[in-house]
TrEMBL record:
Domain of life: Eukaryota
Organism: Vespula squamosa
Location of the Septin-type G domain: 40-306
Name this protein carries in UniProt: Septin-2
Stretches of the chain forming a coiled coil according to its record: 344-407
Pfam families, alphabetized: Peptidase_M24, Septin
GO MF annotation, one: GTP binding
UniProt keyword terms in alphabetical order: Coiled coil, GTP-binding, Nucleotide-binding
UniProt record similarity statement: Belongs to the peptidase M24 family.
Source species taxonomy: Eukaryota, Metazoa, Ecdysozoa, Arthropoda, Hexapoda
Amino acid sequence: MASLELERGKLDSSIRNLKLSGHVGFDSLPDQLVNKSVQNGFVFNILCIGETGLGKSTLMDSLFNTSFESTPSPHNLASVKLKAHTYELQESNVKLKLTIVDTVGYGDQINKEDSFKTVVDYIDAQFEAYLQEELKIKRSLSTYHDSRIHVCLYFICPTGHGLKSIDLVCMKKLDTKVNIIPIIAKADTISKTELQKFKSKIISELQNNGVHIYQFPTDDESVADVNSSMNAHVPFAVVGSTDFVRVGNKMMRSRQYPWGTVQVENESHCDFVKLREMLIRTNMEDMREKTHCRHYELYRKRRLEQMGFSDVDSDNKPVSFQQTCEAKRSIHLQELQQKEDEMRQMFVARVKEKEAELKEAEKELHNKFDKLKKDHTEEKKKLEESRKKLEDDILEFNRRKTQFAQQPQHHTLTLGKSVLKQVLDKCIVGASVREICEYGDTLLTEETSKVFKKEKELKKGIAFPTCISVNNCICHFSPIASEPDLILKDEDMVKVDLGAHIDGFIAVVAHTIVIGSSTERKVIGRKADAVLAAHYASQAALRLLKPGTETYTITGTVEKICDAYKCKPIEGMLSHQLKQFKIDGEKTIIQNPNDAQKKEHEKFTLETHEVYAMDVLVSTGEGIGREQDTRVTIYKKTEETYQLKLKASRMFYSEVSNKHGLMPFNLRTFEDEKKAKMAVLECVNHRLIEPFQVLYEKPNEYAAQFKFTVLLMPNGPHKITGIPFDLDIYQSDCVVEDPELKSLLYTSANPKSAKKKKKKAEKAVGEVAMEVDAKA
């Protein structure tokens, strides 16, 4: 290397100066360079830093005497954003690609600690992009759009007594990366005396904090004087405007105020002309050169050193780029080989360790398998013995369970038929409805108390209080002592509705009679129509109550039979699934639903071993139940919760819970009916108790009801409540003519007697009255 430098020294000393004897032509090289540069055009990139509203965009318009397209910047950004806009400008035959980068939201944040970071990252990103283009094997710097920042115009707010902390921090971070020219924005808001003090204060603070701003060069004799004088005017106090005002014969950029006009290009008003002269007309190329030769070179040097490149080695001897690459490659290969060896050794060690673990695990598994095999054989033997014993126990348990479960249901069935028959016998001319209802409830209580006397904890009693609803009264009429009574008359249509339970197994029943009717004194007209429609509809429903039937199939069948007798099922009446201690289960069969009720009550499919209270209510009128002045006396506790306010209400609710649970009850069961009527109101208002409203058809219309309890067995429905219907005392001009309905009614509800009943039913085809299973 020393010999190479010696040879260069010899060459330099051997260069001779010669005079040309004639014109050669290389004196045109400057012209060629100018032409080449003009042809390629120039690039100049300006970074404007300053708070929102300092007039950055307006100053750019004024500097280049044009109107750049720009949109107003928001003031509520969470961080600083940089927006770059590039424009193609041409003056005479010189083209300039100008890029203006604006800092949107700078200084608007409450926490301004990292406001400068976005700006620094942007400048470094442009340097990095240029460096990557330089490092390419196939590069094209002549066509590459150079986006490096050539000058930073730092806009200083004219308010205050000096620079803000953010100004000093930001310029300190940028002074090694870009040419900084500080300018005082909106200088027309400060007096000349204050302006000079403000400038001095700014320069002093910059020097004290070691911030290096761009100095206009004085090494070029052609511009040394003007640049030297202009350095003394920094920071420039500028004013920008997009408005033009006529001054003499010229239109000048100006700002008009009530007190006068500020001319942008008047040097006695501001430093705008000085800034434009220094920035564009005199020192633009110097800024481009300093950006490339100083700021970019500093960045390039630092980045190459980070990559591991250097001009000298550890002994401070010159090193070529190729030598550096080979050295780094050698180091990298050594590190790679070392890591490969370490990984190989680690892999071998782990394989050996894993093999040892697997052998030990295999040994343990063999031992466990042998032990489990032995234990399994013994356990299998024990399980076989236990299974046989369990099967015997299950058979015995099911036998006892069936026997026990049938006993309450059987007793409830017997009670329901017995009490209903005795209550119907009381329905005679001159009888009191209140007294009959009281008699029915007393009878239900007495009869249920006679069964299962040894079972002290077994709950039993009324499942539905006795109701006597007469003529157009549809349901739930059971007057208490303080309410008006009703006396039965001859030819009244009477509906008796009641229910009992033993251990929560519920049986309900309802039946309709006409007082004074007999085979010699038959019921005719609309009364007969209503009773027969209700009877046949209930019988058809009974035959459809089997597993797999959809609930709305029963709804439609009931409506068709009622239509045959020119009657209407009562709108919205429900037949509920019965569960232990619950009279209104989840599944329901609805009568004559309106549109709203169809949406509320969905379709269900009947399943084996379910229990239903099939309730058919039919009227000769519109089929719509209406409330009248009759007071409600029957209620039922719900499963809602609420903290009652009145003490009397709390005591009443507690008594309901203890005596009746979720079963319906009549207010007559309470000792003080007056207190009960008052207490029940608060409970109803808060939905702790729901009322069974007394409903009526229109006057001179009649309503008939048949209700029974049905078990859905695998071989068909099993009706467990109800009494025989005397078909001979009813005579109607209407008949069921629909073949499908006839076929359904011909079938027996009892599968065992299907053949016998079919012959009996076929005998009635074509007759006005149709005989069906009387026992069903």
